[in-house]
Amino acid sequence: MCMFPDLAPPAAIILTSAEFSVDPAWVIFWFWAQWFRTEEPASLWLTSPSGLVCRKHQQYDCKWYIPLADLVFPSPEESEASPHVHPFPDHELEDMKMKISALKSEIQKEKANKGQSRAIERLKKKMFENEFLLLLNSPTIPFRIHNRNGKSYLFLLSSDYERSEWREAIQKLQKKDLQAFVLSSVELQVLTGSCFKLRTVHNIPVTSNKDDDESPGLYGFLHVIVHSAKGFKQSANLYCTLEVDSFGYFVSKAKTRVFRDTTEPKWDEEFEIELEGSQSLRILCYEKCYDKTKVNKDNNEIVDKIMGKGQIQLDPQTVETKNWHTDVIEMNGIKVEFSMKFTSRDMSLKRTPSKKQTGVFGVKISVVTKRERSKVPYIVRQCVEEVEKRGIEEVGIYRISGVATDIQALKAVFDANNKDILLMLSDMDINAIAGTLKLYFRELPEPLLTDRLYPAFMEGIALSDPAAKENCMMHLLRSLPDPNLITFLFLLEHLKRVAEKEPINKMSLHNLATVFGPTLLRPSEVESKAHLTSAADIWSHDVMAQVQVLLYYLQHPPISFAELKRNTLYFSTDV
């Protein structure tokens, strides 16, 4: 009997002894090298080196196994500190995404032009290889198992949801009357001989495995309101997180406040989540742990208890409406009520100048700085100061969505220049303050790096000669209006300081470039040809280039406004 937990992608195969002479049940962890990294590559079930996309004549080698009766999950107190697992560089992951998106675009063009099937298959093979590499190298969530008679193994999964699924699947099997055992060499040979047949049961969640008529997923922004939850048996400190999939794996995107000492939390918090070909939304409900002794030594994070989890498919016909769609996810006897609606990328990223020029949102940056008699807008300085004061070590700062209603409240206060701004900032959730800063730059009537220079930035970042690129990128900065340049350099230094805390906040320079690049560069008007390309094509070409531009400046040694002015003629431009 084979039991396959419903995972995406499946991290392991759990087998019982019904097909073999071993008595009683046992477990084999079979990790494909294409899917998941571990701290010890030798402790895997490895495919043969015949190629990632080779589907015939594959051979498997058994590296280790653990009987279910001997498998335990060490508690945070019992676990020992493990050697540091170096995450795969963010820029290499983004390069893979760029290649995958470009290959998707090429395949679609070949199909539209009725190209040769060989050419299409060759492109699909390349895309398949890159998607496998991305799935292998993207996971960062530690999952440790231990053989009570031997050693521990640490695996990296893509989300807390999957880690919970594996734990539950194993614990369910362990409820049977199990005994320890040792496999003979013959039994191991029989098992490994069955592996090719077993690996066909699951399809890995990559584009290459999808039919042509399957949905490519949603590109744009999903607005989600987490209303409330019922069904808890005793009072606890409760919160929810939201995960969505992108490129075959899931990423945590939002987190509600902790509702203290209750059985019926009522959050009523709205979040705006960016989707990149997403097809599923996951909601996880946690009990907050304040005991600092319960720290996961694999990533030095306090372990909160998952009370329930659930998942829904993002049906385009359901969510692509102007009205909110309300639903309930049931999880372990718990019911979480939420509402959602979807806004396409072209609609949600449209820059619209404010009709009210007395505020700051939707108003040209030169108008705001002139009115304030400042070099950097007050809203930028205050949000940056607050983030550096109490949010610079917040996990996922600028990536995790703040509560939309809090962000709108801060927007209204800044627009009205309310005297209570500082008091409100000090009491506000830090993710809402970070979200307000992002919203300010997103709603500028033209991007901070200007519409006029956008084509030149795209050309400059594509230059292959380092010296030519340096000259071009520095000249473009000198060509910015003073308020734009000074504000950009101010933000640049702030983001560098945030990235210095990457071991704690998990936000690298590349993560920050991914968050802010499109916000600072996206043109105010989409070119007329945009409607001819899919959302995925727009994302792959424009957004990736925008990320690379900001990353170039983030990785550059400190840039001084005075130095830029002194070394080269400055071409002023009215904003």
From TrEMBL:
One GO term describing the cellular component: membrane
Residue ranges of every copy of the Rho-GAP domain listed in the record: 363-561
Keyword Glycoprotein: no
Domain PH: 143-175
Pfam families found in the cross-reference section: C2 (PF00168), RhoGAP (PF00620)
Membrane-spanning ranges: none
Localization, UniProt: Cell projection, Axon; Cell projection, Dendritic spine
GO MF annotation list: GTPase activator activity; guanyl-nucleotide exchange factor activity
Entry superkingdom: Eukaryota
CDD domains registered for this protein in UniProt: C2_ABR, RhoGAP_Bcr
GO BP term, pick one: signal transduction
Location of the C2 domain: 200-329
Keyword set, alphabetical order: Cell projection, GTPase activation, Guanine-nucleotide releasing factor, Synapse
Primary location recorded for the protein, binned into one broad class: other
Protein name: Active breakpoint cluster region-related protein
Organism of provenance: Marmota monax (Woodchuck)
Lineage: Eukaryota, Metazoa, Chordata, Craniata, Vertebrata
